[in-house]
């Protein structure tokens, strides 16, 4: 039995509202799957471009050396897509920092942040809890005199 070389992998999460996506990035051939499906088959189709943003910004060449498997849970369709794109972007940055070199990681990070900061930094906004005396968090029931 020969000596097995250690597995080069990073695990990173992306969040949006209550959706959480965990990306497992390892050395490979440029394969990206979300919950076992290819990236192109993720619904809704209208937000397909949002999913592809990290890949289109950085070019397929940077993704050709890695395989990514993303698990996503919680939230709705839109917030899941935003969580997935954030997880993919953060996973690539983490992989490059750990296993490639600092210069290329810094370059990737600056490209992503200049385009959209939410690709690397989570949005802290959450739904405000509903209070009594009204239908929502701030709105009150209509007052009636009769």
Q: How would you describe what is shown here?
A:
With 146 residues, the chain is α+β, with helices and mostly antiparallel strands. It has helices at residues 48-58, 60-63, 77-99, 102-115, and strands spanning 9-16, 19-27, 32-34, 37-38, 66-73. The chain has a five-stranded mixed β-sheet with strand order 1-2-5-3-4. The protein is elongated and about 80 Å long. The model has no long low-confidence stretch (mean pLDDT 92).
Summarize this structure as a short list of keywords or feature phrases.
146 residues, 21% strand, alpha+beta
Report strand %.
15-25%
Strand and helix order: EEEEHHEHH
Derived structural class: alpha+beta
Main beta sheet: strand number and arrangement?
5 strands, mixed
Radius of gyration: 20 Å
Task: Give average pLDDT, whole number.
Answer: 92
Give the assembly state of these chains: single chain
Distance between the termini: 87 Å
Contiguous uncertain segments of 5+ residues:
none
Which sequence of strands runs across the widest sheet?
1-2-5-3-4
Total beta strand runs: 5
Shape: elongated
Instruction: Give the fraction of residues assigned to helices.
Output: 25-40%
How would you concisely characterize the structure shown here?
It contains 4 helices and 5 strands.
Annotate the secondary structure layout.
Blueprint: E1 9-16, E2 19-27, E3 32-34, E4 37-38, H1 48-58, H2 60-63, E5 66-73, H3 77-99, H4 102-115
Parallel strand pairs: 3-5
Antiparallel strand pairs: 1-2, 2-5, 3-4
